[in-house]
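Entry 14. Structure prediction run on the chain below.
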Amino acid sequence: MSAHGAGVAFRELLGSGGFAYGAELVSTRGLPNPDAPGSCLGAAGELAGDRRIGWLSITDSPGGTPMLPPDYLARLLMDHRRRVVLHVTCKDMNRNGLETTLWRYAAEGFDNILALTGDLSGEGFGGRAPGVFDLDSVGLIALARAMNDGLAVRGRRGDPERLPGTHFFTGCVVSPFKRHERELLPQYFKLLRKLAAGAQWVIPQLGYDMRKFHEMMSFLRWRGSDVPVIGNVYVLNRTVAELFHQGRLPGCVVSDALIEMVRRYAAGPDKGRAFFRELAAKQLAVFKGLGCAGGYLAGIAKPETFFEIIDLAEGFAPHDWRAFAREIRFGQPGEFYLFEEDPATGLADPQRLNAAYLRALEHPAKSAEVGLSYRLSRRVHDWLFTRGRGLYGLARRLYRRWEERPGTLSRLAYSMERFSKAALYGCQDCGDCSLPDCAYLCPMRACSKHSRNGPCGGSREGRCELGDKECLWARAYERLKHYGESETMLAGPPVLYRAELLHTSSWANTYLDRDHHAPPGTAPVPPAEPPPNGPPSADTAVPPQAGLDLPAGGKAKADGQPPTTGGNDALRPGIIGPPVSSSPP
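Output returned:
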């Protein structure tokens, strides 16, 4: 049996070369009852004590519902803390609250974390709570890495000092089960950004298409990353499958073909119980066959169900997974795949990029997103806000002079800035402008989570998980693809919003090196007087491209020939790299 013993730490499991099984635990809203059937308290101890379970993963208020925090359950498992993974989300805490939480986890010995942006908050006391999302998952990963390196802070006397380093083993999530190119590729690009920020292992969101799952793994290997990947399995029942199919649980996908099968089996005498458990076991077998480091089981309340599914998976013959991979291909109609299909396996062919995608890179289709306003915005930015070009130097000198001697002209310039940006972009006057990062779409207005580092996993059919607007990052992808910039749209260091600049001039903050666009190590020009929210905080700068040094590369030809590099035939560097494997494991 490939499950590991209870004494092996989670990070050692993922680096062992074997295949381990993880179990998800979900806490409760309200006081827990240890005597209730299916109680998470009883399940935690029983799962931790079974040799088939390699690690336990504890969620952080999934669906945005208020629940007991994950470390409540974790403290009941102190003897197994090296095998416990705590989910950390950004929906309910600002960066200081997240840092406080991480210090608490580190002090208690809980070093394994899964960093997520988190779902939008659900119904709470007196109504729906607003989400915080001061950081997103990329910023949270960067924070955990900075704490591992020894967080640089301002000491009591104002002098810089470095705190003792932590030992977080940080995981990240990617959502590959997207139907459209404009949703899928930003997910892959953000995944690379998470790895560059410091993520050390990967788990996908939920879907039931092994070709797309294998494509995600192939993309990582093709980029030269050997980061451990965990397969994600949610044991379906009809109720949950219907919710997934309707898109009511963000990032979880059940296709039309799968829901028809679910309904058919659920109408049987056992309500589909045998089918659902066998499907989960087959998924685990495929993940093991593809070379994943482990399989993550969720959607289960009773420990005996975990054990039954693991035993089923272990009972398959060594090569059965290949047939299962062909069987579990519940994609969506017209779904986009980055790699062509390998006819021998039914999985991704890492040697061949999607031929239509390659043609579209050379000749992008017209898009309604690329209108006059966007074209003009790019031109103005090139001449006014690009260092070393156009009127940037003149504007910088002008704003420095106004900073020393503020007056009517500086106030008039700020009024003109607010009026023009509000009219063109719906500007919220945040003071630390990310329009250039987001293809001139304001993340404070056009994204429900204000994400500046790429898309969350909650979009569906190109629309925000709230369903009220198009996903900002799907729109940004279309705009940047037109200019040949889509593949590097998320290159660069994490963007951390500087909240102390709220309701100040973003133009002045750019020219005076106060915002996140300032080069690392640049000393900002201090403001003439503190902004309305008080003095600036001691934010820690994140070095550019921190994390994995992922290589840039060339392009795989659609006809399956070896990848080319250089010249006009190469993809733009930074995101897409050369293939490293020609067949699945």
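The longest helix spans residues 273-290.
Filed with the rest of this week's runs.
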